[in-house]
From TrEMBL:
<keyword id="KW-0378">Hydrolase</keyword>
<dbReference type="GO" id="GO:0016020">
    <property type="term" value="C:membrane"/>
</dbReference>
<dbReference type="GO" id="GO:0009245">
    <property type="term" value="P:lipid A biosynthetic process"/>
</dbReference>
<protein>
    <recommendedName>
        <fullName>UDP-3-O-acyl-N-acetylglucosamine deacetylase</fullName>
        <ecNumber>3.5.1.108</ecNumber>
    </recommendedName>
</protein>
<keyword id="KW-0479">Metal-binding</keyword>
<dbReference type="InterPro" id="IPR020568">
    <property type="entry name" value="Ribosomal_Su5_D2-typ_SF"/>
</dbReference>
<dbReference type="InterPro" id="IPR011334">
    <property type="entry name" value="UDP-acyl_GlcNac_deAcase_C"/>
</dbReference>
<comment type="function">
    <text>Catalyzes the hydrolysis of UDP-3-O-myristoyl-N-acetylglucosamine to form UDP-3-O-myristoylglucosamine and acetate, the committed step in lipid A biosynthesis.</text>
</comment>
<dbReference type="InterPro" id="IPR004463">
    <property type="entry name" value="UDP-acyl_GlcNac_deAcase"/>
</dbReference>
<comment type="similarity">
    <text>Belongs to the LpxC family.</text>
</comment>
<dbReference type="Pfam" id="PF03331">
    <property type="entry name" value="LpxC"/>
</dbReference>
<dbReference type="InterPro" id="IPR015870">
    <property type="entry name" value="UDP-acyl_N-AcGlcN_deAcase_N"/>
</dbReference>
<comment type="pathway">
    <text>Glycolipid biosynthesis; lipid IV(A) biosynthesis; lipid IV(A) from (3R)-3-hydroxytetradecanoyl-[acyl-carrier-protein] and UDP-N-acetyl-alpha-D-glucosamine: step 2/6.</text>
</comment>
<dbReference type="GO" id="GO:0103117">
    <property type="term" value="F:UDP-3-O-acyl-N-acetylglucosamine deacetylase activity"/>
</dbReference>
<dbReference type="GO" id="GO:0046872">
    <property type="term" value="F:metal ion binding"/>
</dbReference>
<feature type="binding site">
    <location>
        <position position="236"/>
    </location>
    <ligand>
        <name>Zn(2+)</name>
    </ligand>
</feature>
<keyword id="KW-0441">Lipid A biosynthesis</keyword>
Amino acid sequence: MQTTIRTAISFEGIGLHSGKPARLTIRPASANHGVWFKRVDILLGDNMVPARWDAVELSPLCTRIKNRAGVEISTVEHVMAALAGCGVHNALIEIDGPEVPILDGSSAPFVRGILSRGARVLPMPLRVMEVLTPVEVHTAHGWARLSPGQGGLSMDFHIDFDDAAIGVQDKTLNLANGTFVRELCDSRTFCRQADVDTMRANGLALGGNMENAVVVDGDRVLSPGGLRHADEAVRHKMLDALGDLSLAGVPILGHYTGHKAGHSMTNMLLREIFSMPEAFRMIEVDGHTAARLPGAGVVRDEIPAVA
């Protein structure tokens, strides 16, 4: 069945790119509502923005959504991953600015808050997208694919960076039974020191610091305390991918492969599969399939202690 969060939970912080303070509140919503953002700082006109693939404005550094009135919300991927990873299908997210607070750079604070409230089951069957045939998109830098899976959502990801502190990393995970909460949710966004300098020169990453991002320079990790996982970078890429895939509006049954992929490429992939009706079908899930979805059976004690 569909779910929503049991009671509201709020978060405060600064935007990673804007550097502006933000307050975000996740509120319960009814069945078939989906996930929507509401800009409570906008009092006139349409302040509702759908968390949906066709509302995405392509951006390489974060996921930004916009409604037809031009109202935007950026850096939605971490809170979207938390909702998907905790099995919350319907929510109203109120926010008082244009960017989701970065918090510690991972999804763990959102996961901790969501699980502290718990999920409420709604009287409506859950529909999911089942991938039937492989769909793939390419750019000059990498590629991404959705292909038929084994009844749930699984993922493998490959990254390759010149900086030895990251280097080449590969990881494969089945996201059933709380894997996202245990394995991915605490992995932080990362960047190269040279990229920080470039982004700030262009008015980006104004809220980034050594506490909410892993910063590397060559073979050195500059952030205090080092890495939470030896392969934290590829884990964070998988976290981002789950958040971006959740913009399909329903859970996905299939296998996602990302080869040096990012936000824009995952959205390109969703746009491609939605343009191919023969590549998927929407089905109501039974109890067996529901038990294999990312948020099934998660408990708060599974959040990694390091986060």
